[in-house]
Write a structure and sequence with these properties.
single chain; 10 strands; mainly beta
Length: 223
């Protein structure tokens, strides 16, 4: 096992957390990997996406109370009265607080409505642009562009094995698939939230909804 390097843009900080050793590997079916690395149709890659303000995104009704084997490779159905359903192409805007390179190859980012809050965040992720990780060529091509933007514009380099904290949070617009990360929903009922930490302070995500895969990312005017 090797230590995680938490890179704060502008200075380097090592945090005593452990990162899985060995090369990154694609996620498993139990983590709904086939869903989170695909879109429903080739036309989705060209869609503008429906705007969901980040505050509304964080309040979306859960698609389920927990994970179910029945939905490992199938979309969760639209909940009664909901405006959006898993698989929809959506977009939202927020401040990028951190970027992390996950052991399944994903670039994991957390967005917040304001640049200083630690109350809640939205997780958005883009998979590794490799045929072993993403079977859909169109999604893989989009991932190449998104990952290139992250590395060059946020000055992160390849964040694999690291958490990169953005000192001066950048406001962006993210477009991609609405995805329900059901693995975490049951734990949230016990106030156990996912999310990385900034200087030892947890930046929680209190929703299991996220954008995954990200298909487009761009700077946006600050509100």
């Amino acid at each position: 096992m090797r230590k995680v390097a938490v890179l704060v843009v502008g200075q380097l900080l090592l945090l005593p957390l452990l990162w899985p050793s060995g090369p990154v590997q694609p996620g498993k079916i139990v983590a709904r990997w086939p869903i989170k690395t695909s879109v429903q149709s080739p036309g989705d890659l060209k869609k503008t996406g429906t705007m969901i303000p980040i505050t509304d995104f964080l309040d979306l009704t859960p698609a389920a109370d927990n994970m179910s084997k029945a939905f490992q490779t199938v979309l969760f159905p639209k909940t009664a009265g909901a405006t959006f359903a898993e698989g929809d192409i959506v977009r939202t805007r927020g401040y990028v607080r951190l970027v992390a390179g996950e052991d399944d190859g994903d670039y994991h980012m957390q967005l917040t409505a304001t640049p200083d809050t630690f109350e809640n965040s939205l997780v958005v992720e883009v998979p590794k642009d490799d045929p072993d990780f993403v079977k859909d060529g169109g999604v893989s091509a989009a991932a190449t562009t998104v990952r290139g933007f992250v590395m060059s514009q946020f000055k992160t380099g390849d964040p694999t094995g690291r958490i990169v904290v953005i000192v001066n949070p950048t406001y962006v617009e993210v477009t991609g698939q609405l995805f329900f990360d059901a693995e975490h929903q049951a734990a949230m009922s016990k106030s156990v939230f996912r999310g990385k930490s900034i200087h030892g302070k947890k930046l929680p995500s209190k929703t299991s909804w996220e954008v995954h895969p990200i298909l487009k990312i761009a700077f946006a005017p600050k509100p």
